[in-house]
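Internal ticket - ligand job 179, zinc ion:
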Amino acid sequence: MLSTLTILQRGAPVLSAIAKPIPNVATAEIKQLIVDLKNTVALAKGVGIAAPQVGKSLRLFIMCSAPSERYPEAPLLAPSVIINPEILHTSNQQELGWEGCLSVKGKRALVLRHSSIDVSYLDETGIMHNQTLTGFLARIFQHELDHLDGITFIERLDNENDAIDEAQWQQQILNNTID
Ligand SMILES: [Zn+2]
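stdout (structure tokens):
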């Protein structure tokens, strides 16, 4: 039976809380949460989802990039489970890119992120990974890690009003293609 979870929207207290590290990845609760998060993000056609977005204040997120209408340049990445993530090093270089969020429905904004990051995390089997991520994958990682620290992409903007409606964004993209 395919189970999905309700995605909480900005304003829910858990989305501004600091999530707790997971001491043991092998519990039934964590295994179920991973299955549910994968189903939920797939159904929502997202490129990532963090545990606090479904009301679990734990340091766990899923990254699952694929090209889509919203992210045409996205690389293909099978759903990856990221537990207790850390950013070990960030590039000085930063870049702007469009982001949305399953917890901030209907809004998009240009967000400044580090172009390249060195990260460490545990996968669902408890194996530690050290990796360098660049571009869109570095962006997803930074966006999802922010959720574990109680930050949505709206808080990364100089001005909350810099976020635009999805319809407006589609219009802009269309105009850019014509130019
Ligand atoms: Zn988000």
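Auto-summary: The chain has a mean pLDDT of 93. The chain has one domain: 13-178.
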